[in-house]
Amino acid sequence: MAVRDLLYHVYERRLERELAGGTLPRHVGVILDGNRRYARERGLASVAEGYLAGADRIPDLLDWCFELRIPYVTLWLLSTDNLSRADDELTHLLDIIVGTVQSIASAPSTATRKLRVTAVGVLDALPVDVREALEEACAATADNDGFHVQIAVGYGGRKEITDALRSWMRAQDRDGHTLADAAEALVPADIGDHLYTTGFPDPDLIIRTSGELRLSGFLLWQSAHSEFYFCDPYWPDFRKVDFLRALRDYAGRARRFGR
Fold it and tell me: pTM of this prediction?
Protein backbone atom coordinates (compact mmCIF):
# COMPACT_ATOMS: atom_id res chain seq x y z
CA MET A 1 0.00 0.00 0.00
CA ALA A 2 1.38 3.43 -0.97
CA VAL A 3 2.09 5.87 1.84
CA ARG A 4 -0.63 8.21 0.61
CA ASP A 5 -3.19 5.40 0.51
CA LEU A 6 -2.15 4.30 3.99
CA LEU A 7 -2.62 7.82 5.34
CA TYR A 8 -6.07 8.04 3.77
CA HIS A 9 -6.96 4.65 5.29
CA VAL A 10 -5.87 5.81 8.74
CA TYR A 11 -7.82 9.05 8.31
CA GLU A 12 -10.95 7.12 7.25
CA ARG A 13 -10.77 5.01 10.39
CA ARG A 14 -10.40 8.17 12.49
CA LEU A 15 -13.44 9.79 10.88
CA GLU A 16 -15.48 6.62 11.32
CA ARG A 17 -14.64 6.58 15.03
CA GLU A 18 -15.69 10.21 15.33
CA LEU A 19 -19.03 9.38 13.72
CA ALA A 20 -19.71 6.36 15.92
CA GLY A 21 -22.83 7.00 17.95
CA GLY A 22 -23.40 10.36 16.27
CA THR A 23 -26.42 11.59 14.35
CA LEU A 24 -26.37 10.53 10.72
CA PRO A 25 -28.77 11.61 7.98
CA ARG A 26 -31.57 9.29 6.97
CA HIS A 27 -31.67 10.65 3.43
CA VAL A 28 -28.65 12.00 1.53
CA GLY A 29 -29.02 13.80 -1.79
CA VAL A 30 -25.96 14.19 -3.99
CA ILE A 31 -25.35 16.56 -6.91
CA LEU A 32 -22.70 14.66 -8.84
CA ASP A 33 -20.99 17.67 -10.38
CA GLY A 34 -17.69 18.18 -12.18
CA ASN A 35 -17.51 15.23 -14.57
CA ARG A 36 -16.93 17.41 -17.65
CA ARG A 37 -14.27 19.57 -15.99
CA TYR A 38 -12.59 16.42 -14.69
CA ALA A 39 -12.33 15.12 -18.26
CA ARG A 40 -11.00 18.36 -19.66
CA GLU A 41 -8.44 19.07 -16.95
CA ARG A 42 -7.05 15.55 -17.19
CA GLY A 43 -6.86 15.64 -20.95
CA LEU A 44 -9.25 12.76 -21.50
CA ALA A 45 -10.31 12.00 -25.04
CA SER A 46 -13.89 13.17 -24.49
CA VAL A 47 -16.24 14.41 -21.79
CA ALA A 48 -17.92 10.99 -22.00
CA GLU A 49 -14.85 9.54 -20.30
CA GLY A 50 -15.42 11.95 -17.44
CA TYR A 51 -19.00 10.75 -17.11
CA LEU A 52 -17.78 7.15 -17.17
CA ALA A 53 -15.32 7.93 -14.38
CA GLY A 54 -18.17 9.49 -12.42
CA ALA A 55 -20.40 6.47 -13.02
CA ASP A 56 -17.67 4.22 -11.63
CA ARG A 57 -17.77 6.21 -8.38
CA ILE A 58 -21.50 5.65 -7.76
CA PRO A 59 -21.26 2.03 -6.49
CA ASP A 60 -18.67 3.21 -3.94
CA LEU A 61 -21.06 5.86 -2.61
CA LEU A 62 -23.85 3.31 -2.33
CA ASP A 63 -21.51 0.97 -0.45
CA TRP A 64 -20.64 3.73 2.01
CA CYS A 65 -24.28 4.63 2.58
CA PHE A 66 -25.26 1.01 3.12
CA GLU A 67 -22.37 0.42 5.54
CA LEU A 68 -23.44 3.45 7.57
CA ARG A 69 -27.14 2.48 7.46
CA ILE A 70 -28.26 5.51 5.51
CA PRO A 71 -31.42 4.06 3.91
CA TYR A 72 -32.31 6.75 1.35
CA VAL A 73 -30.06 8.19 -1.36
CA THR A 74 -30.96 10.50 -4.24
CA LEU A 75 -28.46 11.00 -7.07
CA TRP A 76 -28.90 13.81 -9.60
CA LEU A 77 -27.57 12.41 -12.87
CA LEU A 78 -29.27 14.62 -15.46
CA SER A 79 -31.06 17.96 -15.25
CA THR A 80 -33.77 19.30 -17.51
CA ASP A 81 -31.18 21.81 -18.77
CA ASN A 82 -28.88 18.93 -19.74
CA LEU A 83 -31.52 17.71 -22.18
CA SER A 84 -30.62 20.63 -24.46
CA ARG A 85 -26.96 19.66 -24.82
CA ALA A 86 -25.41 18.65 -28.13
CA ASP A 87 -26.93 15.42 -29.42
CA ASP A 88 -23.73 13.37 -29.34
CA GLU A 89 -22.85 14.36 -25.78
CA LEU A 90 -26.41 13.78 -24.56
CA THR A 91 -26.57 10.39 -26.27
CA HIS A 92 -23.35 9.27 -24.57
CA LEU A 93 -24.55 10.57 -21.22
CA LEU A 94 -27.91 8.81 -21.49
CA ASP A 95 -26.18 5.56 -22.43
CA ILE A 96 -23.98 5.87 -19.35
CA ILE A 97 -26.97 6.61 -17.11
CA VAL A 98 -28.90 3.61 -18.44
CA GLY A 99 -25.86 1.36 -17.97
CA THR A 100 -25.37 2.68 -14.44
CA VAL A 101 -28.98 2.11 -13.39
CA GLN A 102 -29.03 -1.34 -14.97
CA SER A 103 -25.79 -2.22 -13.19
CA ILE A 104 -27.22 -1.10 -9.84
CA ALA A 105 -30.43 -3.07 -10.40
CA SER A 106 -28.63 -6.28 -11.43
CA ALA A 107 -25.71 -6.21 -8.98
CA PRO A 108 -25.44 -9.30 -6.72
CA SER A 109 -25.58 -7.05 -3.67
CA THR A 110 -28.94 -5.57 -4.71
CA ALA A 111 -30.93 -8.60 -3.58
CA THR A 112 -29.05 -9.02 -0.30
CA ARG A 113 -29.40 -5.34 0.51
CA LYS A 114 -33.06 -5.30 -0.61
CA LEU A 115 -32.12 -2.29 -2.72
CA ARG A 116 -34.88 -0.56 -4.61
CA VAL A 117 -34.02 1.83 -7.40
CA THR A 118 -36.48 4.39 -8.76
CA ALA A 119 -36.14 7.05 -11.44
CA VAL A 120 -37.73 10.50 -11.10
CA GLY A 121 -37.89 13.47 -13.43
CA VAL A 122 -39.48 14.33 -16.75
CA LEU A 123 -39.11 10.76 -17.98
CA ASP A 124 -41.50 11.35 -20.89
CA ALA A 125 -38.96 13.79 -22.35
CA LEU A 126 -36.35 11.03 -22.63
CA PRO A 127 -35.93 8.89 -25.76
CA VAL A 128 -38.34 5.95 -25.66
CA ASP A 129 -35.60 3.31 -25.46
CA VAL A 130 -33.94 5.14 -22.56
CA ARG A 131 -37.20 5.54 -20.64
CA GLU A 132 -38.13 1.88 -21.17
CA ALA A 133 -34.69 0.68 -20.06
CA LEU A 134 -34.93 2.76 -16.87
CA GLU A 135 -38.46 1.53 -16.19
CA GLU A 136 -37.38 -2.10 -16.62
CA ALA A 137 -34.44 -1.68 -14.25
CA CYS A 138 -36.67 -0.05 -11.65
CA ALA A 139 -39.35 -2.73 -12.04
CA ALA A 140 -36.73 -5.42 -11.38
CA THR A 141 -36.20 -4.03 -7.86
CA ALA A 142 -39.78 -2.91 -7.14
CA ASP A 143 -40.37 -5.56 -4.47
CA ASN A 144 -37.34 -4.51 -2.42
CA ASP A 145 -37.82 -2.26 0.58
CA GLY A 146 -34.57 -2.01 2.49
CA PHE A 147 -32.21 0.43 0.81
CA HIS A 148 -33.71 3.08 -1.47
CA VAL A 149 -31.80 4.69 -4.32
CA GLN A 150 -33.56 7.41 -6.27
CA ILE A 151 -32.09 8.46 -9.62
CA ALA A 152 -33.02 11.97 -10.79
CA VAL A 153 -32.96 11.96 -14.61
CA GLY A 154 -34.23 14.88 -16.66
CA TYR A 155 -34.97 16.50 -13.32
CA GLY A 156 -35.46 20.16 -12.43
CA GLY A 157 -36.94 21.51 -9.22
CA ARG A 158 -39.03 24.23 -10.84
CA LYS A 159 -40.43 21.76 -13.34
CA GLU A 160 -41.25 19.32 -10.55
CA ILE A 161 -43.17 21.94 -8.56
CA THR A 162 -45.01 23.09 -11.68
CA ASP A 163 -45.98 19.53 -12.55
CA ALA A 164 -47.05 18.88 -8.95
CA LEU A 165 -49.34 21.89 -8.95
CA ARG A 166 -50.73 20.92 -12.35
CA SER A 167 -51.42 17.38 -11.11
CA TRP A 168 -53.15 18.70 -7.98
CA MET A 169 -55.31 21.07 -10.00
CA ARG A 170 -56.41 18.26 -12.29
CA ALA A 171 -57.33 16.17 -9.25
CA GLN A 172 -59.39 19.06 -7.91
CA ASP A 173 -61.16 19.37 -11.24
CA ARG A 174 -61.96 15.64 -11.30
CA ASP A 175 -63.47 15.99 -7.84
CA GLY A 176 -65.72 18.82 -9.06
CA HIS A 177 -64.10 21.69 -7.16
CA THR A 178 -64.05 25.19 -8.62
CA LEU A 179 -60.70 26.92 -9.09
CA ALA A 180 -61.62 29.47 -6.39
CA ASP A 181 -62.52 26.75 -3.87
CA ALA A 182 -59.36 24.79 -4.69
CA ALA A 183 -57.15 27.85 -4.29
CA GLU A 184 -58.73 28.63 -0.92
CA ALA A 185 -58.15 25.10 0.36
CA LEU A 186 -54.60 24.67 -0.96
CA VAL A 187 -51.94 23.87 1.67
CA PRO A 188 -48.25 22.92 1.23
CA ALA A 189 -48.94 19.24 1.91
CA ASP A 190 -51.15 19.16 -1.19
CA ILE A 191 -48.16 20.06 -3.36
CA GLY A 192 -45.94 17.57 -1.55
CA ASP A 193 -48.35 14.76 -2.31
CA HIS A 194 -47.92 15.33 -6.05
CA LEU A 195 -44.12 15.65 -6.29
CA TYR A 196 -42.04 13.19 -8.29
CA THR A 197 -40.40 12.09 -5.04
CA THR A 198 -43.57 11.24 -3.11
CA GLY A 199 -42.78 8.34 -0.77
CA PHE A 200 -39.25 9.54 -0.03
CA PRO A 201 -38.52 11.52 3.14
CA ASP A 202 -37.12 15.00 2.61
CA PRO A 203 -33.31 15.01 2.37
CA ASP A 204 -31.49 15.65 5.61
CA LEU A 205 -28.20 16.38 3.87
CA ILE A 206 -27.44 17.53 0.33
CA ILE A 207 -23.87 17.26 -0.94
CA ARG A 208 -22.57 19.01 -4.04
CA THR A 209 -19.14 18.28 -5.45
CA SER A 210 -16.83 20.39 -7.68
CA GLY A 211 -16.77 23.58 -5.60
CA GLU A 212 -20.03 25.07 -6.87
CA LEU A 213 -22.02 26.76 -4.09
CA ARG A 214 -25.60 26.42 -5.30
CA LEU A 215 -28.38 23.83 -5.65
CA SER A 216 -29.17 24.62 -9.31
CA GLY A 217 -32.76 23.50 -8.77
CA PHE A 218 -32.11 20.20 -6.99
CA LEU A 219 -34.99 19.15 -4.72
CA LEU A 220 -36.13 22.75 -4.30
CA TRP A 221 -39.32 21.92 -2.42
CA GLN A 222 -37.90 19.05 -0.39
CA SER A 223 -34.75 20.87 0.76
CA ALA A 224 -36.50 23.57 2.81
CA HIS A 225 -34.92 22.25 6.01
CA SER A 226 -31.99 20.31 4.57
CA GLU A 227 -28.38 20.85 5.55
CA PHE A 228 -26.03 21.64 2.65
CA TYR A 229 -22.41 20.57 2.22
CA PHE A 230 -20.25 21.81 -0.64
CA CYS A 231 -16.83 20.35 -1.37
CA ASP A 232 -14.12 20.98 -3.95
CA PRO A 233 -13.36 17.54 -5.50
CA TYR A 234 -14.92 16.81 -8.86
CA TRP A 235 -17.35 13.92 -8.58
CA PRO A 236 -14.97 11.30 -10.08
CA ASP A 237 -12.40 12.30 -7.42
CA PHE A 238 -14.88 12.07 -4.53
CA ARG A 239 -13.45 9.73 -1.88
CA LYS A 240 -14.80 8.07 1.21
CA VAL A 241 -12.93 10.59 3.37
CA ASP A 242 -14.84 13.38 1.58
CA PHE A 243 -18.12 11.63 2.34
CA LEU A 244 -17.19 11.06 5.96
CA ARG A 245 -16.19 14.71 6.32
CA ALA A 246 -19.63 15.71 5.05
CA LEU A 247 -21.27 13.42 7.59
CA ARG A 248 -19.06 14.73 10.38
CA ASP A 249 -20.01 18.29 9.46
CA TYR A 250 -23.69 17.31 9.43
CA ALA A 251 -23.43 15.57 12.81
CA GLY A 252 -22.00 18.73 14.35
CA ARG A 253 -24.88 20.96 13.28
CA ALA A 254 -27.93 21.81 15.36
CA ARG A 255 -30.98 21.34 13.14
CA ARG A 256 -33.87 23.68 14.02
CA PHE A 257 -36.28 22.96 11.13
CA GLY A 258 -37.20 26.64 10.91
CA ARG A 259 -38.00 26.92 14.60
Answer: 0.95
